[in-house]
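As a warm-up, study this chain.
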Amino acid sequence: MSCPKTEPNVVKEEVMATGKWVKLERTTYVDPAGKTRMWETAKRTTRPTNTDADGVGIIAILKRTLHKDCVVMVKQFRPPMGCYTLEFPAGLIDDDESAATAALRELKEETGYKGEVVGVTPVTCLDPGLSNCTTQIVMVNINGDDVENLNPAQQLGMPLYTFSLTRSLTLSLSLSLSLSVFQSFTCMLSLPNCVPFFFFTLPVQISLRKHEKSVCIKYNI
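Now compare it with the structure written out below.
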């Protein structure tokens, strides 16, 4: 005889520790079998009251005459990882900002590029086993022929990379976003070595040379 199913629900949330950007909570909940359990949950303290998303991830496509379209990415040191990561431009949504507005602001700050929003995904969770942190993916086109984008001046001083956009990459992006699946596009960098990493569950390889600004993505499939 099977046990009766119970609708899972959160009973209470108790704050264990609070920092400037993150807080840790002890979550008491009832599982589908009706058993009361405990969970440790990390939450951001910065989520605006007018949105369900904490931040934005930006897939920016640089378009230039007589050049292949490129994906713009940034390299920055991430203390939790203890190393540099290569990622899509991203950031938190400020009060009274929409996802689109936040994306254009973050893109300008992190890359120096001025872009145009062409699409925004629904709110998507990032790591639901650890946190309630959510994001919206914003697709942006950058007119590389625009005078403002000829010599982009970054405001945050992070190294900038552009990746030639292949048909395989375009298909991967479209498929992943249509399923509202987004994972951090990050990898541990050890320049100038070739670094394997995963992009939306597809194994790829990036070959970076020291001081190289434009690199190509190659799929191992």
